[in-house]
Amino acid sequence: MTWEVLSMIGTVAFAVSGAIVAMEEEYDILGVYILGIVTAFGGGAIRNLLIGVPVSALWEQGLFFQIALLSITAVMLFPNNLLKHWQKWGNFTDAIGLSAFAIQGALYATDMNHPLSAVIVAAVLTGSGGGIIRDLLARRKPLVLRSEIYAVWAILCGAAVGLGIAAAPFELYTLFIIITALRVLSYTYNWKLPVKRLGTSKSIG
């Protein structure tokens, strides 16, 4: 039940995220639906390929496809004056998708008895894969590569689930709230990881 709830939350969050990015880029209606669907299911597809789950498993999630389509349709019906505030609340939607899908991916790998390293990789790919595909298709720099901390929170999800720190439903939902809050704080206060810059040499002449 916890897996299904997190999947539903992540699907809605990322479908909305992809749809709004598509509208920002002035895609047509079909493009909006395509980018929304790809964002919602891209991370799961990449995860399945790497941890040995048949890709065909995605086509068995009919309910989640319907939820994604309804979410995209709802966004398209929103008044434009609300959508203009995407930059303010859109990152929050992405944060919800990141934490929900990261935990879901970690649970998936744990159920398949994969080692901790694979659980963490599954969490990162499921949590950030859809967003990466979304940004690349929209010709944007992926959030995971930006200066604000992003993928680290997915790693923490994978570690918490893989080490058994979060296993019961209450613990998983608490982890979801904590990771979402950390992601919101990281872009609100511009938390950054250390950066190593290469010096540029000046030409003489």
Structural class: mainly alpha
Query: H/E series, N to C?
Result: HHHHHHHH
The portion of residues assigned to helices is: over 70%
**Form type:** globular
Structure notes:
The protein is mainly alpha-helical. The chain has one domain (2-75, 88-188). It is built from 8 helices and no strands. The protein has helices at residues 2-24, 29-51, 62-77, 80-83, 86-111, 116-137, 151-162, 169-188. α1 (2-24) packs across α2, α5 runs antiparallel to α8 and α7 packs antiparallel against α8. The longest helix is centred in the middle third of the chain and has 26 residues, at 86-111. It is globular. The mean pLDDT is 85.
Describe what is shown at a glance:
The chain contains eight helices and no strands. It is mainly α.
Keywords:
mainly alpha; globular; 8 helices
SSE diagram, text form:
Elements: H1 2-24, H2 29-51, H3 62-77, H4 80-83, H5 86-111, H6 116-137, H7 151-162, H8 169-188
Helix pairs in contact: 1-2, 1-3, 1-5, 1-6, 2-3, 2-6, 5-6, 5-7, 5-8, 6-7, 7-8
